[in-house]
Amino acid sequence: QVRLAESGGGLVQPGESLRLSCQFSENLFTYYDMAWYRQAPGKQRELAASITRTGDTNYTETVKGRFTISRDNARNTVDLQMNSLKAEDTAIYYCSARHGLVTNARRYWGQGTQVTVSS
Description:
The protein has 119 residues and is mainly β. It is 0% helix and 50% strand. The strands form two sheets. Strands 2, 4, 5, 6, 9, 10 and 11 form a seven-stranded mixed beta sheet that branches.
């Protein structure tokens, strides 16, 4: 059973930075595509950034140039570096994992971490 544990959320002012980290519980981390989703109050959950098992990355348009997703296969972690944060980045951020070699694989979710950007 895959378990995901996020950390690093908090309250920051506009323009500041935060780094989120997600710990993956299993030894098969290198087989999984990873992603960070976010859900703002009253809105649907959306993809913020993703990284495949081979290291290809993808970002939603509103975070391009400000967010960077990375993975450390030795530590079984995926991080999201968030710079130049804006009020509209306020959301619960969820780490997600899906096996990259299995068709219609199940998607796993962490419990989420709150990011609040406010002056």
